[in-house]
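Lecture 7 notes: from sequence to structure.
We start with the chain below.
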Amino acid sequence: MQKSIKRFLNQTHILQTHSAEATARLIVDFWSAVALLLREGWDNPRRNLITKGIGVYALMGIAADLYSEAATQSIDKRYFMNKLSEFITEVDWTTSGPLKGLGGESGVKLAFETLRSARDKRRLRIVSNA
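Predicted C-alpha cells for the same chain:
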C-alpha cells in the first residue's frame, strides 16, 4: 500500500496543492468507496485480488486518474463512489478471473489497463445511450 500511495503522490503532484492531512483523507475516502462497492471481495481477501499487490497498485492508478479528472469538483467519498460505481463492479476481481496470475510491474500495468478499459467501455455506453 505504501509504495502504491507513493506512486499516486508522484503521478498527481497532489502535495503541491493539498496538505498531507487532506491528501490522507482523500486516499482513505477512495479506499472506503472501494470497500463499500466491492464488499464481497473486500471481505474475502484470499479469493480476491483487491487487496493484493496487483489490485492495490491498479486501483491507486485509477485513483490518480479520478483525481486528475476532478478539476474543481469536490473530491470525497461520494465522488469516488459515483465514479467507481460506473465500472468497478464489472471487473472480475476473483483469483480465478482474468487478473489471475498477474504479477510484477508488467502485471500491474496490465491490470491497470484492464480497469481503464472497463471504465472507458462503460463511459462509451453511457454516452451512446444518452
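Points to note: The chain has one domain: 2-124. The mean pLDDT is 90.
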